[in-house]
Write a structure and sequence with these properties.
single chain; 178 residues; alpha+beta; Alpha-D-Glucose-1,6-Bisphosphate, Chain A, domain 4; 7 strands; elongated
């Protein structure tokens, strides 16, 4: 009986330590990746300013080709919205709406992952020699949820590779179109 009490007490102490340490972790998750594309911003902007156009280079749609996509609002720019639904755990269900669009400079979106929370994403287009540097960013307020804070530590590892793949897809698409 003493052994069971010690094991239980040890588990409680471990859980309390993990919860306490979580409040020392960052309260915001941020991911950012950049790529140089040999094209002017005007050739890239249409592919980041329309949820329909992102289908052509998205790093996630290959995971579940059966993902159900629906669009609403205008075809591009502020209000253009994508809703997706998938049973695949790495795709899930959610929505993304363009909330800011500055032609050939930047696009900002609001993401809603349902019970998984919300986030913001952005595409920044900056002149880079004869081409354009495209930076794809993501940030999410993790609040005070200890589990979210621990997950936030892993966000760059989980999402960074997808952002790199997506930017590479975008680069290939734009440069072969030019």
């Amino acid at each position: 009986m003493k052994v069971i009490k010690r094991i239980f007490a040890g588990l409680v102490v471990c859980i309390l330590v993990l919860v306490a340490v979580s409040y020392l972790l960052p309260g915001k998750a941020e991911v950012s990746r950049s790529i140089a594309i040999d094209a002017p911003p005007s050739a890239i902007f249409p592919y980041v300013n329309s949820m329909q156009e992102t289908e052509k280079w998205s790093p996630w749609l290959h995971r579940d080709p059966e993902t159900k996509l629906t669009y609403s609002g205008p075809a591009a720019g502020v209000g253009n919205t994508l809703n997706w639904a998938s049973d695949h755990p790495q795709v899930g269900t959610g929505s993304q709406e363009i909330v800011e669009s500055v032609e050939n400079q930047r696009v900002r979106t609001a993401l809603d992952f349902g019970p998984m929370g919300t986030a913001a994403a952005s595409f920044i287009l900056e002149p880079d020699g004869a081409g354009t540097r495209v930076t794809w960013g993501f940030d999410s307020d993790l609040g005070l949820n200890p589990i979210s804070r621990w997950m936030g530590v892993m966000m760059d590892t989980w999402v960074g590779e997808d952002y790199e793949r997506g930017l590479t897809n975008l680069k290939e698409l734009v440069e072969t179109q030019g």
